[in-house]
Amino acid sequence: MFRNEKDRNSVADIQSVDSGSGSGHHVKEQQNNLWRCGMKKNEFLHSLRGTKQKYKRLSLSPIRYAGGKSLAVGHIVEALPNGIKRIISPFLGGGSIETALNLRLGVEIIACDILEPLVIYWQQQINNPTDLYHELSKLRPDKETYKEVKNQLKRYWETKKGLSDLEVATLYFFNHNLSYGPSFLGWASSVYLDEGRYKKMIERVRDFRTEASFKVSCESFEQLFEKYPTDFFYCDPPYMLKDDCPTSKMFAGIYPQRNFPTHHKGFNHGVLHACLENHKGGFVLSYNHCEKTTQLYKNYIKSHPTWQYTMGQGETRISFNRKEGTNIKLSHEILAVKI
Ligand SMILES: C[S@@+](CC[C@H](N)C(=O)[O-])C[C@H]1O[C@@H](n2cnc3c(N)ncnc32)[C@H](O)[C@@H]1O
After folding, report:
1. b/e code 317-339 from CB counts within 10 Å (16+ = b)
2. I need a labelling partner for 234 at 20 to 30 A (CA). Which of 132, 151, 226, 325 fits?
3. Pick from 236, 269, 284: which residue ends a domain?
């Protein structure tokens, strides 16, 4: 459970202060620990500083993912409390934020996603990277193999039987990472059907090692809110579609795939809002910017971060954070935070 003696001590110190039994010495120790964690976070953020953007992209996850947050890592880590030890993430997807927190800052992750083959892939990636690499190294990144893999994965998706977890993870990774988009059961990307690229890609699978506990389950987000009522959550739900809010710029669902967006179209944004309103712990929520999301989370919106800033993309609307009349363009994202 504890990575080393230092971690165990820091938890013990914090507990003794929280329970009110801490001596002056313990209080000082706790402050030192939090300061050290804060330093770690600050050093990490400093290492991500960019020139054009506030923070550079960080991609530690071996999988590509639609709606991935590799450009948002700095903004989201900045919004988290210093010294946080564990994060609950109910919409894992490609896990950009979770891998950064776990691998670079040693934060424990408890995550879920509703897409079963993705969850099986993550479980194998975390617990069985060497076998997963060996299975992937048997496949050739060419059109014929892509077609065969897609057919096998489609059969599994329709019947939910006939394959071991290692086989599902192998097929899922191959199909998804070599696809255009990327997209589940999608079309091959000519860019990714390439020996050299494929070799590098699967070496990342082989070399992936977590720094602290990282658990992934296949369930819907409500269940994690029920199980962890006081923990800190990071939520990156499917973005609100135009069907749900006329000012949304997202016309069609993408999860798990544009042609069958069963985990996106009809997603219950109201239930997520109720879970977050009733939650006793803190949270960071990344969402798309539209009237309904800003209305629902008006008490928590911290910023319109600039990882997808539309500057220079031809829009001339007024920034949310600027005085009326200044002609700065809007970000498409919002970050809502409760500490
Ligand atoms: C925006 S993506 C997360 C992207 C991720 N942050 C990344 O960096 O790759 C949203 C995820 O929510 C998942 N999802 C959709 N409905 C869900 C539900 N009811 N419960 C849990 N996960 C769900 C989708 O499968 C998708 O992977």
Report:
1. eebeeeeeeeebbbbbbbbbbbe
2. 132
3. 284
Query: What is the 82 CA–ligand 1 centroid distance (Å)?
Result: 25
Q: What is the pLDDT of residues 123-142, one digit of tens each?
A: 999 999 999 999 999 999 99
Cβ of 93 less than 6 Å from ligand 1: yes
Co-location of 88 and 176 in the same domain? yes
| Structure token digits, residue 279 | 């939650």
How many other CB atoms are found less than 10 A from the CB of residue 12?
A: 14
Question: How far is Cα of residue 339 from the mean position of the Cα atoms in its chain?
Answer: 19
Domain count within the chain? 2
In angstroms, what is the span from residue 34 Cα to ligand 1's centroid? 31
| Span 77-121, pLDDT tens digits | 999 999 999 999 999 999 999 999 999 999 999 999 999 999 999
- Are 80 and 44 contained in the same domain? no
Phi first, then psi, for residue 32 (nearest 5°) are -60, -45
d(CA 335, CA 339): 13
* Token pair 């210093």: residue: 82
Residues 83 and 38: beta-carbon distance below 8 Å: yes
User: 67: Cβ below 6 Å to ligand 1?
Assistant: yes
Q: Is residue 165 part of a domain?
A: yes
